[in-house]
Amino acid sequence: MIRRLFTALGPKHDRALRRLLAWFTVAAVLQGVAFVMLVPALRELLGDRPEHAWPWVITLAVLWLAYAAVSYPATLAGYGTGADMSRDLHHRIGDKVAQLPLAWFTPDRVGGLGRLASQRVVDIMGVPAHLLHQLVDTFVTPATVVLAMFLFDWRLALSMTVAGVAVALVYRVAGRGMAAADQEADRIHADAAVRIVEFARAQPVLRAFGRTAQGHAALDDSLVAQHAAGRRMLRASMPGLVWIAFIAQAAFLLFLALGTHLALGGSLGAAEFIALLVLSARFVEPIMLTSELGGAIRVAENALTEINELIDTPTLPGPETSRRPDGTDIELDDVRFGYHGSTVLDGLSMRVPQGRMTALVGPSGAGKTTVIRLIARFFDPDAGAVRVGGVDVREMKTEDLTSVISAVFQDVYLFDGTILENVRIGRPDATDEEVYAAARTARVDQITDRLPGGWDAPVGEGGSRLSGGERQRISIARALLKDTPIVLFDEATAALDAENEHALQEAMAALARDRTVLVIAHRLHTLREADHIVVLGDGQVVEEGVHDDLIARDGQYARFWRERRRAQGWHLAKPAVVR
Ligand code: ADP
């Protein structure tokens, strides 16, 4: 456990933790020796010459003072180290999150990450603050008492050793079962937490379809699983807890019986007997605590395992120095890629020529979004290469790749700030004029005119106060402000009102000017404007060319075009008046 703690925190806290361990050990030994001093003190006190007890009582007082003198600063240092560690862990988690491949961020993991950075870090913070202290006290104080006990009565010391070993064995055996149950329960709790958030977010959809709590099977299942895991954990931990309590009580009875036997036999004085009883009570107490402590240790261990797992998650390998792209054309060369073993792109080769607009079309699930993700290097292909300006994206540092690419996705995430702040994210050091100019070009001014508060209107969490088309316009404004030579664009599929449609078209046209653009096209207008069209199907390019040629070929693209036209030309007729 201590080794794992050291790994999780990195070498930085090694010294502080070792120093703490040393301090806590010294304090525990002092405490143990002070307890043992009770034996001679009581012996003298109840003997013929009680005044001879003074030196022992004074030694005891000095030992207690020394214990307090060591324990107090050590406890304070423990809290200090805990606070340092939590700050450091937050930084390490933050740095890691910033390097993780974007594919890592599934909703489940994002939910877990919140818990990791809050609850889990607090769990670990408690380790140097009090757990380590308790742990050392629980083992070192009784061990000191037993060792010192050998000086007074080897028979009692031996019986204490036997009791100690028995508890340790029970603890190990029971602990293993409890740890497994704990880990499982933890995973299930995390899943339930994610499902509850999902349930809350899905309320509009569930209500629209007239479904309430019973209707959300995933939540029901995870709550049932949580319930079952709680019971399993109880079942796994109960025998261990009962056994530890039983052995601790049995040990106390054993001392009592043995002491009585020895006292009656005359080989143990009454004073020693009383002192020994006090000591055995002191010996049994921490043993009773081990079961409680065991739970806290497992919580900390699980927290450490989770944090270590995150820190050990492989990031996409990057080069020491970036190769400079020559130009901005994009090439996918015999790219194979699949999610979790299922093939999506199967030897895809295509080019996006520099300074032109290339439209990507194909049926839903053909892999269009995947192509964009591969170019932006959310993932690396399983085989083949993605090149920008002739350079494999794996040979470029992440910051160099992102400095030439802007991506506008359908599900645009806005931070809970003002419209202006959200546009500024495109280039934080831009002047106000530059931000306004980009925002106006993307027709964000139409949105600010509508909203009370104008440019300073809050967008709500995730941009909830704006429509999908409006959020995408803010994303285009960000891309305009970032002003990269390459733009990857996933056009909104949702039907837009005429005003939004028109504004979006203008914004896109501004963005496409003089840039290399790859757009997943859903609108007829975009397809007509594109310099080059690539049709995907079955993980490969099935057709490519310009609009007119592709229509003339009357293949898959022509069919796609006709379907789109039919969909757009489709209007709801006025209902006939029934008399
Ligand atoms: P398109 O954009 O053409 O609709 P996508 O690139 O989004 O297609 O998806 C291609 C295939 O990959 C689909 O079958 C989809 O279900 C699957 N897919 C997409 N993203 C993921 C993911 N993160 N994990 C697993 N499968 C995915």
TrEMBL record:
GO molecular function: ATP binding
InterPro entries, alphabetized: AAA+_ATPase, ABC1_TM_dom, ABC1_TM_sf, ABC_transporter-like_ATP-bd, ABC_transporter-like_CS, P-loop_NTPase, Type_1_exporter
Name under which the protein is recorded: ABC transporter ATP-binding protein/permease
Coiled coil segments of this chain: none
PANTHER family in alphabetical order: ATP-BINDING CASSETTE SUB-FAMILY B, ATP-BINDING CASSETTE SUB-FAMILY B MEMBER 6
Location relative to the cell: Cell membrane
Span of domain ABC transmembrane type-1: 20-297
Highest taxon, organism lineage: Bacteria
Transmembrane segment boundaries: 20-42, 54-79, 131-150, 156-174, 240-258
Topological relation to the membrane, as annotated: Multi-pass membrane protein
Swiss-Prot/TrEMBL keywords: ATP-binding, Membrane, Nucleotide-binding, Transmembrane, Transmembrane helix
Record-annotated ABC transporter domain positions: 330-563
